[in-house]
Design brief:
single chain, alpha/beta, Elongation Factor Tu (Ef-tu), domain 3, seven-stranded antiparallel sheet
Length: 280
Amino acid sequence: MSKPLHSAPHRLPPRYQVSIRRLEWLTPRVANLVLHGPELSGYEPADAGSHIKLILPPPGVADTPQPLRREGRRPVFAEGVTPPFLRTYTPLRYNPETLELEVEMLLHGDSPASNWLRSARPGHRITVAGPRGGWDPPQDGDWYIVIADDTGIPAAVQVLQTLPDRQITALFEVSDEQERRPLPGIPDLLPEWLFREPEGLTAGAPLEQAVRQARIPASRGYVWMALEAGAMRRIRRHLIEDRGLHSEQMVTRGYWKLGTPDHPDGDYGYGIGMGENRPR
């Protein structure tokens, strides 16, 4: 049906030293970073919705510090050097001719990555690791549903670009109307934008309501979703227990979790349906 969702767990992904070539704010909360570096000549794109790690410098430092050496998987830094931190993002586009990698970043509260983004400038140097994962969508579906909140939109755009010409529903949730933006390569009628404001809805609530109201055909189809982990689990449970979908028809990602900083990026929401097994 699809390629494996995970890479080998014990091998470090390739790393690339890059600099910020351009930084453009697409909305009040979303910035597009164009990263560049000669090392990107070895970059190999993965399947739609794959992820990379951005290794970012600590507060007050412009460039990501590099380790003196590695002891196994653990990097060792010079005395007095504050280690960098890692965050997971979708590599939106890669241009092998210009050696440019585009990444969209979201201002997400008072977090280390958001604070770094506010101070980032062209010329600052960081490290990229990856890519890994992704989804090779089965082409035998009669319908597809793609669900994402602010954090999952870049990956969802990639997924939409790989789907066959079938019945496609795309639901994107953002904070407010200002966060709605054109999406290159996506038909004008997609997606349906849902907003948390001005009603002050909890993250994931508009998506959950829309899915419960959606018409899902009885024929073969697939669901891909990436959003707040709690809402992802509720939607997944609804689709399995109330709509009769099987886990093999779904790819689910909990990209973040309300009240939990640095939520693990391997949250797939498995194990909530009767007899459900993790896909192989």
